[in-house]
Amino acid sequence: MFDGRAEVARHERCTNRGEPTLVLDHYLEVLARKPGALPGATTLVQARKTGVVTAEHETFWAATRTKHGDAGGTRELIEVLLLHRNLPHDAVLTGLRAATTVGATAADVVAVEARKAASQLHNERAADNDAAGAAGASRVVSLTERRLSDPGAVIAGLPPDTRPLPTVTAYDDLLSRRQTPAAGQTKTWGGVMTQPRLRSRAMTEQAAQAAVDQACRALRLPTIRTRVGDIAAAAQREQLSYWGFLAELLLAECDDRDRRRSARRIKGAGFPREKWLSDFDANPAINAATIHTLARCEWVKKGEPLCLIGDSGTGKTHLLIALGTAAAQQGFRVKYALATKLVNELVEATDERQLARTIARYGRVDLTLY
User: Fold this and answer.
1) Largest alpha-carbon pair distance within the chain?
2) pTM for the full model?
3) How far apart are CA 56 and CA 97, in angstroms?
4) Which domains does the chain have, with CATH numbers?
5) Over the stretch 317-341, which tens digit does the pLDDT of each residue have?
């Protein structure tokens, strides 16, 4: 099975009609959470038939169940089976034999020995490839030399080729004769030098408005499309130059995009309610200069923590959300989460083997509030 060009799964071909073909590797994560389902599983029976589970696995499994119990021993076996995804089959079997020989019943010991065996196999294969490459290089014979040395070959009787080597000098001379457009001029495909012409001279007012609307839609400039009429009227009243009119249009688009980005960052932060620093008056005992300093978010740039301590009803949550909103407006990526929810999410990610991905997702956030 392929996802695009990447292979995501491989199944054995069924020889009998209606017979299920189960791959043990596809169920290892589920069996790790429910190890009691492995001994009687159909996929285990098929894995034994196909040689995925060998006598080495059975010996190691029996030893681990004796020492760690059925559930613990089965989990150790599953950890060993997961090694097959990244290491050669022979290397894992070598690791199982080494662990069984010393009486080890931990999958970590098998992993260490299997990696040693895999490294040794890799070095041996590299040495074999180098030897084969050297032997092959010594056997390479030039076909031209062989034909020239053969008196009966046709190529041996041909006269030497005295023709000059091909050159592109003539084409370089043609390129040097091309005319370079002067300032304010454009060059067409026919080589005719022309002055740029404005297409809007022959347009009516309605046609020009329709062209601007269509161009703004194609370039994805919604603010200019909706406000070009008002800005044009204001520019005419204030007698702005063409450059001033263009600057007003572009600045309006930039301001609106900044406003939309701030709104997306605030929405993505997941605040339970809207709170602003301008509305904060829950605790007049807090110095206004301190709040003003925190609102500049220099502590966020430096990666410094902020801890709000106080009794209930003193405005901690209001100030926390308001500072997070101010940080989002200044371009920082903010995430708000309750401490209990954050802990539950990390525990669930650990159970699902997604802890590293979850921590990386929070690591991309500039400010986490909890």
Assistant:
1) 108
2) 0.40
3) 7
4) 2-130 (no CATH), 204-264 (no CATH), 270-369 (3.40.50.300)
5) 888 888 888 888 888 888 888 888 8
